[in-house]
Amino acid sequence: MQRRPLTVAIASALAAALLPLGAAAQTAWPNQPVKIVVPTGPGSSLDLIVRLMGDKLAARWGQPVVIDNKPGAGGMLGVDIAAKATDGHTLAIGFNGPLAYAPYLYAKVPYDPARDLKAIVMTSSQANVLAVNAEKVPAKTVAEFVGWARAQAGRMNYSSLGQGSSAHLTMELFLSEAGLQAVHVPFNGSPPAAMAVAQGTADATFMVAPALLPHVQSGKLRLLAVSSGTKPDGLKDLPSLAEAGWPKVESLAWNGLVGPASLPEAAVARVNADVNELLAHDAPLRDAMARNGLSIVGGSAAEFRRFIDADVARWGPVITRLGVRLN
Prior knowledge:
Blueprint: H1 3-27, E1 34-38, H2 45-61, E2 65-69, H3 76-83, E3 90-95, H4 96-105, H5 113-116, E4 117-127, E5 129-133, H6 142-151, E6 157-160, H7 166-178, E7 183-186, H8 190-199, E8 204-207, H9 213-217, E9 221-226, E10 252-260, H10 265-281, H11 283-291, E11 295-296, H12 301-322
Parallel strand pairs: 1-2, 1-3, 6-7, 6-8
Antiparallel strand pairs: 3-10, 4-10, 4-11, 5-8, 5-9
């Protein structure tokens, strides 16, 4: 009489213990291919970062990682895909423009960066670099560049990797501080923006180093300064803008992985942990990022969210003061 209830109790206990394991197995993330949207074109610094990590993350997750370049609308086109994704397996690598500046720049933004996106992990930050065409622009210092630009009487033009990007706003802030005027020529991504300066169709640019360095090596571009006191190892010899006499012009281009607000916390935790592990310990990845002037960051999802909020608080008033509004 007592053996049967004991057997039932043992069976019930085993079933109860096994149920969570089965449920976990069914809901383990990822359980399908993971798409990472890159809101800039191939060859950009964002594209480089994701491609350096893609195969390594796929090996960890046991699922393919699909990289989808969707440049356009200052990065908003690609980030909006992630904001509206409902499959639980679509992420994006975002940057200053679409994650922090967009609400101040555009009358209509297709998503709310604070409400519709989850910060997952910051991947890198780096100073923007002031670069000029080595043949058209004779300046070898920032002071000489300001003098040359002033003599152009508004005829100077500059390229950027997109409207509302850190590159665009850094140049606008610099022009304002220096009392200069110039024509903005935006591109979809840093490779074509850097090429425009190298070919002489644009006179100057601010952007992060990866797309600039090949043209520096070919003698087409000259680097004059970096926009932050924190300099990548390969750019230690360049002065910061503060050192060159422009302390109010300081900026960092930064990026990181985000997902839709509906992304499960388990997925956020998994992506954060695995990306941090790669950034901290994968020597080939770290070396490749350093060679391209990318400063590794990492950290928790909460830290990334606080960083975004701080950049909004810093640049929102600057954008308003400069009067930069985009269609």
